[in-house]
Specification:
alpha/beta, D-Maltodextrin-Binding Protein, domain 2, seven-stranded mixed beta sheet, 11 helices
Length: about 300
């Protein structure tokens, strides 16, 4: 027999005998008679190919090999006792791993609350956070490289390929250089806004929002004057601060207080809005994911509108 195939029952018998150093007392603790215990220990020694106990009529002692084994066997049996609890914790989503991708706008408001909530309710879950644009998130979800993603799009344009949960909805607002005339104007004129140079995100990362913005411009007969594209919202705001142009950003970005930038809201029904959604693969029953979705749903419902 391979020594690694020795079952836990024999190791329990070894540990009890090592603690009692008396076959009769060890057998009594194990609720068995002495002959089967003697036979089991002898078979264990044959399996391992070494002696574990020195025996005489009045004396039982551990060999050096047994002394070396003793702490390892204690740890093995302790781990075995913990297995049912570990299994129950895994089934309830209390332990495991969650790989979450997110767009940068979520980091300004929702993400910190989600991380705190997960740490509070499931501290043993290993959370892996990956900042990624929406297009890359959907590819990673399809390949099974992440468990969930957080996407930004216009209301009604959630990707149909995945399960999803509404998290928040907000308008787009203007980020303006602090010294720009529109930054201090008492009233914003849409016509004047649309004629300004624009710092814009590429269509591939936020297609529905990109299209809605361009539709706003074309409806007013003014094609967008895009002078620079950037992927990250922080980068877009930094370019606005540098004076390259203005930018349309989700209202949550206003939490990014960048010197040299002023945020203004244009209250018009035709200004696009954006929706944040948590998405995950259909049929994914990962307990950690289920727990996280429930957490996000609870926090989203408790947010003020």
């Amino acid at each position: 027999m391979n020594p690694s195939a020795v079952d836990l029952r024999v190791w329990r018998q070894f540990l009890t005998l090592a603690e009692e150093l008396h076959f009769g007392r060890a057998a009594a603790r194990l609720h068995m008679t002495q002959p089967p215990l003697t036979q089991a220990i002898a078979q264990l020694e044959v399996t391992l190919g070494l002696r574990l106990f020195e025996r005489s009529r009045r004396h039982v002692a551990l060999t050096p090999a047994a002394q070396a084994l003793l702490p390892e066997v204690r740890e093995l049996l302790a781990r075995a006792r913990r297995l049912p609890d570990i299994a129950r914790a895994a089934a309830s989503g209390e332990v495991g791993r969650l790989r979450l991708a997110f767009v940068s706008t979520v980091g300004f408001e929702q993400l910190p609350g989600w991380v705190r909530g997960l740490r509070e309710h499931a501290p043993q879950v290993a959370l892996e956070l990956i900042e990624a644009t929406g297009d890359l998130q959907q590819e990673a979800l399809a390949r099974g490289e992440i468990d969930a993603g957080v996407l930004l799009h216009t209301p009604g344009f959630a990707p149909a390929a995945f399960e999803s949960l509404h998290v928040a909805e907000e308008p787009l607002v203007l980020a303006l250089p602090a010294g720009h005339a529109l930054a201090v104007a008492p009233r914003l004129s849409l016509a004047r806004v649309l004629e300004q140079p624009l710092v814009q995100f590429p269509r591939r990362i936020l297609p529905s929002i990109h299209d809605a913005l361009f539709a706003l411009y074309h409806a007013q007969g003014r094609p967008p004057l895009v002078v620079q594209e950037a992927i990250q919202m922080q980068t877009i705001v930094n370019l606005v601060a540098a004076g390259l142009g203005l930018a349309w950003v989700p209202r949550s970005v206003t939490r990014f207080e960048r010197q040299g930038v002023v945020y203004r809201e244009l209250s018009r029904a035709d200004v696009p809005r954006c929706e944040t959604r948590l998405v995950w693969r259909r049929g994914d029953e990962n307990p950690v994911l289920v727990r996280f979705v429930d957490l996000v749903r609870t926090l989203a419902q408790s947010r003020p509108c």
